[in-house]
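Per your request, structure below.
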């Protein structure tokens, strides 16, 4: 999903063109790369250049925000994001292989004391930028990709002005399911140029990829505190996210997915 989709879209939806090339070489990271001359190297990459980043919007180079560049932002509901980030910190050697408890990690997450800062401070500026410049930024969610991957592939291709045939959309969708990518060494980080970035005995880079895993971690007290913070930070934003797979079955009058703009303090059920 996400940058894997885009890489395939620019290869006409043909998995054979990318199946032997690591994702790292297909889609370069803006802030991660050569210790010397990284940006100079990126400028030499043949256009159209595909780049990925985790940087907050205010520190993205102005030329990327104001130029012809198109940006695709993928958000995940913050509860599942916190759980995923917890395991990412446990496995990441370059982040110190976090040894603390889930309770302590959630505290750090809610305070914005982790790498890349607060989830809210990261997401909301991109969301507002998308609202102001929908032609230059596509804002989608992890949950969107999970629930309708073919539809999202088509939407991404259209945004990039790279229309695809139904067969190409199907090929990309089949190649980019979480289950398929988890077993694909070109994207699952099992094979990397630098071998000591991740400790896979702590967690796999691609772990579960589901909606609602947060219910297996959040206590009732944590859920109440998080909902209070979420409602305060997101008030008036209009951003709607799915937190619970049960929401998928609830349709509004327009037949669209039921989504959440405000969190209630109901019981945590697993």
């Amino acid at each position: 999903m996400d940058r894997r989709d885009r890489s395939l879209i620019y290869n006409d939806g043909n998995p054979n063109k990318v199946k032997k090339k690591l994702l790292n070489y297909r889609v370069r990271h803006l802030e991660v790369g050569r210790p010397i001359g990284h940006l100079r190297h990126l400028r030499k990459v043949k256009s159209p250049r595909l780049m990925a980043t985790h940087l907050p919007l205010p520190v993205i180079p102005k030329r990327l925000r104001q130029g012809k560049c198109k940006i695709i932002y993928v958000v995940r509901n913050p509860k599942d994001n916190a759980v995923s980030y917890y395991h990412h910190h446990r496995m990441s050697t370059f982040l110190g292989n976090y040894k603390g408890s889930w309770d302590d990690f959630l505290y750090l997450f809610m305070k914005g004391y982790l790498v890349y800062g607060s989830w809210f401070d990261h997401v909301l500026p991109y969301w507002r930028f998308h609202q102001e410049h929908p032609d230059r930024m596509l804002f989608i969610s992890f949950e969107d990709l999970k629930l309708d991957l073919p539809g999202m592939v088509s939407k991404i291709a259209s945004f990039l002005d790279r229309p695809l045939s139904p067969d190409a959309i199907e090929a990309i969708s089949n190649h980019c399911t979480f289950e398929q990518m988890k077993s694909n060494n070109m994207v699952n980080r099992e094979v990397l140029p630098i071998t000591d970035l991740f400790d896979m005995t702590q967690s796999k880079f691609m772990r579960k990829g589901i909606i609602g895993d947060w219910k297996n971690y959040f206590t009732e007290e944590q859920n109440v505190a998080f909902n209070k913070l979420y409602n305060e930070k997101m008030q008036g934003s209009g951003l709607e996210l799915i937190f619970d797979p049960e929401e998928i079955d609830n349709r509004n009058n327009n037949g669209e997915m039921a989504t959440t703009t405000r969190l209630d303090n109901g019981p945590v059920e697993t």
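The first strand starts at residue 28 and ends at 29.

Regards,
D.
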